[in-house]
Description:
Blueprint: H1 3-13, E1 34-38, E2 41-44, E3 49-52, H2 55-58, H3 67-79, H4 91-103, E4 108-114, H5 117-134, E5 142-146, H6 155-159, E6 179-181, H7 194-207, E7 211-216, E8 220-221, E9 227-228, H8 231-243, E10 247-251, E11 275-278, E12 290-295, H9 296-304, H10 320-335, H11 338-353, E13 362-368, E14 371-376, H12 382-391, E15 394-395, E16 402-405, H13 413-431
Parallel strand pairs: 3-15, 5-6, 5-7, 7-10, 10-11
Antiparallel strand pairs: 1-2, 2-3, 4-12, 8-9, 11-12, 13-14, 14-16
Helix pairs in contact: 3-10, 4-10, 5-9, 7-8, 11-13
The structure holds pyridoxal-5'-phosphate (PLP).
Amino acid sequence: MTSDHLLDLDKAHVWHPYSAMFNDVGSELPIYPVASADGVRLKLADGRELIDGMSSWWSAIHGYNHPQINRALKAQLQKMSHVMFGGLTHEPAVELAAQLVALTPKALQSVFFSDSGSVSVEVAMKMAIQYWHAKEQPNKQLFLTIRNGYHGDTFGAMSVCDPVAGMHSLFQDILTQQYFVDSPDCRFGQPCLDEDVAEFEQTLNTEKDHIAAVIMEPIVQGAGGMRFYSAEYLHRVRELCDRHHVLLILDEIATGFGRTGKLFACEFADVTPDIMCVGKALTGGYMSLAATLTSKDVSDTISQGDPGIFMHGPTFMANPLACTAALASLKLLLASPWQSEISRIEEQLTAGLEPCRTMNAVQDVRVLGAIGVVELKNPVAMAVIQPLFVDAGVWVRPFARLVYLMPPFIIENEDLEKLTSAVVDVVSKLSS
Length: 432
Ligand SMILES: Cc1ncc(COP(=O)(O)O)c(C=O)c1O
């Protein structure tokens, strides 16, 4: 298929994330056919190569087309690509569950696999509701969260995304009305004062009989604003949840598997959630797979209560190919000096993005682990900014007021330098 034909068909029939169809009039939002991807490079159909600054939305931590993951998948393909998980089990799922239990905080012992991050959040929310139902406290059905959060696009997940800044305000009237408090002002590295948790504590205090769980992204609020908050805040949230008999769900879908410099961001606060969601980088970005992990208390209570089973079971639960990709990705990650790689990336992002700090268009520059963020004062015009990055030979996909980098962990200094320079150049054009 020629690129032109592909783009015509794409325009006619294919819906892209957070996009309109028929965008062929007036303000063209560009779309780029990718022919292949290898290492940290996306190869466009027209022959251009782009250095990847996005890891395909937090997921491709080892880059693309990795020989070890490819080999593992080919071997699994010869055995079985899929088999239902009801009444059957298989080695990739069991091995992966055991690995996840070993890597995550000790109390998390039970693993429920699902097909995407959003679904794993739905599963976590249903688990919390079923937990209290089993404890004969059926009024505890709602959730408390902080503003600026993002947990996915399905209805339960949408109900705990930021109600205003979030992308889902359109559905507000039919979403369950959850409890929201302001997101913490105390930034990462800062202490958390009593006043920082006052509203949170107050809400728990008065509404705990209706709240099944607190749900939050630990330390890094991703798509809701790329904010990094104090580890002490998370620590205090855990204490408050315990004191008020409310479960804590931590959504590690974006932060999990090393991105922040810890294997899981909850480690910054030395906090163990009752329920944890992982996804995205779980398979090294090869396939869609997520998991919801719980403590024995949660899984036993659900299993022993009425109706005695957990009410969820996706068709592609624990897909053997996806579990195999996850096992291969984890093996690569754990065999690599990932901590020092993340420190190296963190240092280079900090130095490389520093020139943005004094630019007119820039509100703030912040870096944590392998995440570099330039927050602008005004939203970007995608139709303008996207081609500027592509012309600079990099793949950077800003949203709203955020231009950010989260490259694959394997990126070399020279390529990372090209990424940060491109951000500095493009943002300086917006500032002039
Ligand atoms: C923190 C967080 N939770 C949940 C999700 C939803 O995951 P998915 O897109 O796989 O459904 C995302 C996706 O960006 C996320 O960043």
